[in-house]
Design a protein that fits this description.
Layout: E1 6-13, E2 16-23, E3 31-37, H1 48-58, E4 62-66, H2 82-101, E5 106-116, H3 118-127, E6 133-139, H4 145-150, E7 157-162, H5 171-182, E8 187-192, H6 201-218
Parallel strand pairs: 3-4, 3-5, 5-6, 6-7, 7-8
Antiparallel strand pairs: 1-2, 2-4
Helix pairs in contact: 2-3
Length: about 220
């Protein structure tokens, strides 16, 4: 498979320059857009987030990989300061949605978030307040306290988690399910019994297939 072409873009969030990488959809007409939010390891730890963006783009979406840690000047998130920085990162995600929505190649009414770990927590925080998000996919995610306690809405959500996750315990997936049920939101929660804080082998393929099916249904 030939990797979709990408371009390095940037915008400003609260006066700070933010990098965002655009992996283009293969079709010329305006297409849905998916904003990908990496985990606490940041984008310097490896190419797995870029590979994920390429897969999403090849499926027919504009994939945007957001460097939200630029807002706080970090290469990877400091665990001791995640609670402090979460509001600023969430604001940057909302600003990124506006940037993506205004892109000429994007269908502005068909936006989704895919978040991994910390990125999934950010996705839930933003989607609880921003009606532009039509679908959300969470890999190993958690619910920020503000979402668990005060959320009135969430978009259709796909929650993927490993039962052996020692970083974000699987209890977080069950808490997300409980909230989605309370809000009467269409959702799917799938727990892989033999997986940890990443998916390997057949579980990785299954998660990718579930994500593709979910996005086709809701975008």
């Amino acid at each position: 498979m030939v990797s979709p072409p990408s371009e390095a873009l940037s915008f400003t969030s609260h006066g700070r320059p933010i990098s965002i990488e655009h992996f283009k959809a293969p079709h010329p007409a305006p297409q849905p857009a998916v904003l990908l939010l990496h985990g606490a390891d940041g984008l310097k730890a490896g190419r797995h987030y870029h590979l994920a963006a390429q897969v999403v783009a090849a499926a027919g979406y504009h994939a945007f990989l957001l460097h939200y840690l630029d807002r706080t000047g970090e290469r990877r998130a400091s665990y001791s300061e995640i609670g402090l920085n979460l509001p600023a990162w969430a604001e940057t995600v909302s600003d990124a949605l506006t940037f993506v929505q205004d892109h000429s190649a994007v269908d502005p009414k068909r936006l989704a978030l895919i978040g991994t770990s910390l990125g999934a927590g950010l996705a839930f925080r933003v989607a609880a307040q921003d009606g532009r998000v039509r679908a959300l996919v969470s890999y190993f995610g958690f619910l920020p306290d503000s979402v668990r306690d005060m959320a009135k809405r969430l978009p259709p959500s796909l929650v993927l988690h490993g039962a052996r996750d020692s970083i974000v315990p699987v209890s977080n997936a069950h808490a997300i399910r409980k909230l989605l049920e309370k809000l009467n939101v269409e959702h799917e929660v799938h727990v892989y019994p033999d997986q940890g804080h990443s998916f390997q082998g057949l579980a990785q393929l299954d998660a990718a297939n579930r994500t593709a099916t979910f996005l086709r249904r809701h975008l």
